[in-house]
Amino acid sequence: MIITRTPESLDLPLPLDLSQGTAVTVGNFDGVHLGHQALLSLTCERAAAMGTLPVAMTFNPHPLEVLTPYAPPRLTTPQERAALLEASGMALVLLVEFTPEFACLSPEAFVRRVLLSTLDMRDLLLGYDFTLGKGRAGTPEVLSRIGKAEGFTVDRMDALSVHGEVVSSTRIRELLHQGQVWEASSLLGRLYSVRGEVIHGQNRGGRLLGFPTANLAPTGTMLPKPGVYVTLATPSETAGNGLPSVTDPAKLTPDTYAAVTNIGYNPTFGPGALTVETHLLDFDADLYGKHLEVAFVERLRGEVTFTGPDALVAQIRKDADQARKILKTVTGE
Prior knowledge:
This protein is of the alpha/beta class. The protein has ten helices and 14 strands. β2, α1 (about 35-50) and β3 form a beta-alpha-beta unit.
């Protein structure tokens, strides 16, 4: 169950019986990566052992968007993040509006008003680098002292490492900024994807080049480094339920298509706005007005200014051939 609350409405009754108590994990959970997934799994295990309900609390907007002028781009929309949290086994996902007033709550006030009064919390489980309350004063040590006084336990999970790298949203953003989408997927536990409505572009792909592309409206989440990518594209009639369509490239549904995606400014035809254009291989249908999820597999090359349409078409053919070879290796087909 996903519930949205403003700070003022936290005292409203929840449509869920929490009288048996809860095991709660609190975090930003941007990306819901492997580190987050391990923490969520631990929360479910603790709830099962204690006979309580597992609950995840997260925030919208991201606290850094409220507290600083330099918030990083998001890896997931609030809807995607909440859906991924719920799918991890949470009985309740509480999405709380983060405001300057909410940021001023002390750790003691946050715990008593939100975690105890609203959620009847018995266990609090935190990621290795998470603190809560005004000025990040709610460290695990401080929260443990509050827990002893209020009757709940506090556990902090150690950092998770994959291939010698600590899994974090910051590191995933760095990899995407560098175009290393496959490396980012190893920390996410799935291919990184963006979603958007298919809108009308300049119509050069089909009319001029013979390679029709689906142009995505702004996605609201981070785009990888400009360039040409091997991708997997999944069209749908609606924006979806927030869950990724491609969870395992080796187990694709008939609704997912091999694709090549260009993120860039179309320098061959003059400078323009940043666009996301996807050419679905072996696909022939009208996508305007529909929604498209694009999952990134590998970066083929940077964006290039060609001498004209013919040279660009020749390169697109090469990109499509290379994409088929790479996807055959990845999907096993």
